Amino acid sequence: MLIHPQFDPVAFAIGPVSVRWYGLMYLVAFVLFIVLGRLHARRRPELGWNAAMIDDLLFYGVIGVIVGGRLGEVLFFQPGYYLSHPAEILAVWKGGMSFHGGFLGVLAAVWLYGRSHGKGFWEITDFIAPLVPTGLAAGRIGNFINGELWGRPAPGDLPWAMIFPWVDQVPRHPSQLYQAAGEGMLLFVILWLYAARPRPLRAVSAVFLVGYGSLRFAAEFFRTPDAGIFGTLSLGLSTAQWLCVPMVIVGIFLLIPAVRRPPVA
Description:
It holds the Pfam family LGT. By secondary structure, this protein is mainly α.
């Protein structure tokens, strides 16, 4: 049995300015996006991406992630808390970012980028899909360092069951690390390998939707559910699980016709 290390959420301070681990994980995510984006563009030059375009796309994406992720957390998961503490809405460095909200924010950013740069929506999402999961992994590691989003009670004989002392003395699943490994690194490997060869338009995006939705849905069985605006819904599923259902359905509907078309250049 393990005990959470109870990291100091502040990585370092320069005078009155404190730099938190959670914020550094977002910086890691953005750096990985640039590095992997350039590698992906280099191995698939026929897709027509270059370093300047990737940097510009990241600018749009950062705004979409931060604005969408925070609004998703506020509206989908903790509206009561933020209604009582409105000043906390802007305190993104303390944690509290919804993937589903960030996902919608990124889709809006992609649409705006495409309009201003003459790129098709699915052309962009197919390119960035393999670049996203490592950022998700970094975010989950940030959750683990912050000691938030802990797991459900685990069997006492589970070797990696972990006690989160500020919650209780019950051994729990380190669900943040499950998610970092699943929807982070495993999904990255799947998408990185799948996108290495020409695929039909929308196919890579569809694999991301199905892969993320399925892996997140499964991970929620090990994670203490967020209360959400609806709490635990019908069939005993969490708000996040129900938000994953349309992702998987849309992904399947995109994938089936996509794989019947010839690969794009």
